[in-house]
Specification:
Layout (H helix, E strand, L loop, with lengths): L1 H8 L1 E4 L7 H12 L13 E4 L4 H7 L6 E5 L10 H14 L3 E5 L2 H5 L3 H15 L3 E5 L8 H14 L3 E3 L11 H18 L4 E3 L7 H14 L12 E3 L2 H14 L12
Parallel strand pairs: 1-2, 1-8, 2-3, 3-4, 4-5, 5-6, 6-7
Helix pairs in contact: 1-10, 4-6, 6-7, 7-8, 8-9
């Protein structure tokens, strides 16, 4: 039960669809604060994650709340845009009230061996973030090998990432255990060298309580207890919260739950 509640408090509740509306974002923000009205004592999620155009809506709904507002940027999910557009995308999201920015790297440039380009791009976006924390999305499903995942993780960390993130959720495979482990090792090696903590956010494909708990065990084993908080570890998910809520209610009541009794996000 402790693990399930910890997972809930680490979720970035996410809607990143072309059909997103202010109404959908308002509903998600309500759910972020009231995960299940029939059960008291539940934590809130860590953050809501939306497009830059919806940050203002989320900011109004979450005013004075501990739930953070994360916004994707840099021409998410493809990243195929000029640098000027990516910078403006980021500055707009921050000006609208984003606490965190989830950027995508230029995978084409990375796969072409232009690592300095990727480094400089991340560093420029980090500067544009101001006080907002920066999560760097590697889109590991397009990086082909674990060696590339490790190299991209190291570049992102050294360029100023506050978090490294597996995926946009639009490409499969996404947050596999092997990929997440590789990224956690990059974080651990950096911490061993510098004493600086970097956050981790697996996203894409983690939709069950069991898999989420597997990830928490891996974080504990590789990085230690200090990473077991939403300050340093997040799940990017849209459907995970309901599965965790169903497991909590099953544990509390002894009865299996139906998805019909939980709000859609």
């Amino acid at each position: 039960m402790q693990g399930l509640k910890m997972v809930l408090n680490m979720i970035d509740l996410t809607t990143l669809e072309g059909k997103d509306t202010p109404g959908k974002v308002k509903q998600m923000c309500y759910k972020a604060q009231h995960l299940h009205d029939a059960y008291t004592g539940l934590p809130t999620v860590a953050a809501v994650c939306v497009y830059p155009s919806m940050v203002g809506v989320a900011r109004k709904e979450l005013k004075g709340n501990i739930v953070k507002i994360a916004s994707v940027s840099t021409a998410f999910p493809s990243g195929q845009a000029p640098m000027s557009v990516k910078l403006e995308d980021t500055r707009f999201a921050v000006s609208e009230g984003a606490d965190e920015i989830d950027m995508v790297i230029s995978r084409g440039k990375f796969l072409a061996g232009e690592y300095n380009f990727v480094f400089d791009e991340i560093a420029a976006i980090k500067e544009a973030c101001g006080k907002a924390r920066l999560k760097v999305i590697l889109e590991t499903g397009e990086l082909s090998t674990l060696d590339n995942v490790r190299r991209a993780s190291d570049i992102a960390i050294h360029a100023g990432a506050d978090f490294i993130k597996t995926s946009t959720g639009k490409i499969q495979p996404a947050a596999t255990m092997q990929v997440t482990y590789t990224m956690l090792m990059a974080i651990r090696d950096h911490y061993d060298r510098t004493g600086i903590m970097i956050g981790m956010k697996p996203a894409g494909g983690i939709s069950t309580s069991k898999l989420a708990l597997h990830n928490l065990v891996m974080v504990k084993e590789v990085l230690g207890n200090q990473w077991l908080s939403n300050e340093w570890f997040r799940f990017g998910a849209s459907s995970l919260a309901n599965d965790v809520l169903m497991q909590i209610m099953k544990t509390e009541t002894g009865l299996y739950q139906s998805p019909d009794y939980f709000s859609m996000d």
